[in-house]
TrEMBL record:
InterPro entries: AB_hydrolase_1 (IPR000073), AB_hydrolase_fold (IPR029058), Carboxylesterase_BioH (IPR050228), Peptidase_S33 (IPR002410), Pro_imino_pep (IPR005945). Residues 36-291 form the AB hydrolase-1 domain. Belongs to the peptidase S33 family. Keywords: Hydrolase. This is Proline iminopeptidase. It comes from Roridomyces roridus. The keyword Hydrolase applies. Pfam families: Abhydrolase_1.
Amino acid sequence: MTSPVEGEIDFDIAGAGKPCKTWYKIFGDLHSGRRPLVTLHGGPGASHSYILPFADLNSKYGIPVIFYDQIGTGNSTHLQEKNGDIEFWTEQLFLDELDNLLEKLEIKGDYDLLGHSWGGMLGSRHASLQPTGLHRLIIPSSPADMTHWVTAQNLLREKLPADVQATLLHHENAGTTESKEYMAAVSVFYKRHLCLIDPMPEPAAESMAWTEKDPTVYLTMNGPSEFHITGPLKTWSMLSSLHKIIVPTLLLNGRYDEAQDSCVRPFFEGIQGKVRWVTFAESSHMSHWEERERCMDVVSGFLQD
């Protein structure tokens, strides 16, 4: 296996007020004749490192895999001056960034796409636009509609210890969700439904830390936590556009996932292309870490089918 290639591409954003770049990392050779897999990380506002296990698809199966940090996080351009600007941080911004990446890497005519969590939301929207070069879509641990997501989080939250629930509610009502007490309570939820591996693998912890080091994107678009959503993503939905997804699609989630079955089922029922749905029995939101080998077998099998 050759060393991954890193680089940056220019991304022209109207209203950014400065030049912007998208940072990427490629495992494998884009000119090998194998169709590349582009990955979209979650958050929004996390970074690529927590989904790095998907690089196994290159080392084990020879599939070129592309990771990138979405604008506003990781090694890409940060725009903290745009904090709170919901007119700037939109789904369209990230769709444009993906299109720009595909064009600049010269793979727009032939690629597969994997989007985890928020990345799956973004990927599903991209697929609904029916780009001619997209062949297969993989959506791990993503909701098709945020109303379903919030309902699922609230049900999971009701199973937390009573004192943890009380702490969460107190700080949300008081508007002190930035406090250490609130984040400590959130971490209890995360250990049950975000990642069951304790301590969290270092690359995953590094990625999640970006939402604290630069919370601009996450707080603006989402809000303080997965179950207390105050940003515009609160009303995000794919329900009216699912029928426009016509490529073969693989859906993944975990038994203990934040993305409960109720969040994933609309994808399964609404997508017009061939759909397969796999739930990992011993996983939460990060089956690519928690059941890594089986996850890669399932994904590689779908891509090579």
